[in-house]
User: Which sequence fits this backbone?
């Protein structure tokens, strides 16, 4: 049985995120592909963050209650029916990479859950992580790099 698999058509794992998906471009999320979701999954959750930010890990996107049958998250769109949390830009949407200096790593972390977290839209990454404790069936990670020109 295959493990949960998470990729993007826009960049390979550990590859450079195209500027169109950053603050230097349209600032929308890159297209994402999901494969091999565990059969017992009730929902998926996605957290995108940057551990290289000067003040500690910076949260770019928090999304949960993504349908387990979801195979694609198109560019510049949130998954239908999913809820979005508040990122560190203070918004409930995707905020693209915008590093102040140097190359930063952006971790796109996808979780297959045996629950649909009972959180309201606007919840934080910490609140989602707390709600997911003990309910993660599998996790897949995609890392993108970005350096402003």
Assistant:
């Amino acid at each position: 049985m295959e493990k949960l698999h998470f990729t993007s058509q826009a960049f390979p794992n550990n590859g450079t995120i195209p500027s169109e998906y950053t603050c230097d471009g349209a600032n929308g999320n890159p297209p994402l592909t999901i494969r091999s979701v565990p059969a017992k999954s009730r929902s998926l959750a996605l957290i995108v963050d940057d551990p290289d930010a000067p003040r500690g890990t910076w949260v770019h996107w928090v999304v949960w209650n993504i349908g387990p049958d979801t195979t694609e998250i198109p560019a510049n769109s949130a998954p239908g029916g999913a809820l979005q949390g508040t990122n560190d830009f203070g918004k409930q949407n995707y905020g693209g990479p915008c590093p102040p200096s140097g190359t930063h790593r952006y971790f796109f972390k996808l979780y297959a859950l045996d629950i649909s977290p009972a959180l309201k839209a606007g919840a934080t990454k910490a609140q989602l992580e707390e709600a997911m404790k003990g309910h993660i069936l599998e996790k897949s990670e995609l890392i993108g790099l970005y350096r402003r020109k």
About this structure: DSSP finds one helix and nine strands in the chain. The domain at 5-146 is CATH 3.90.280.10 (Phosphatidylethanolamine-binding Protein). Residues 2 and 36 are 6 Å apart (CA to CA).
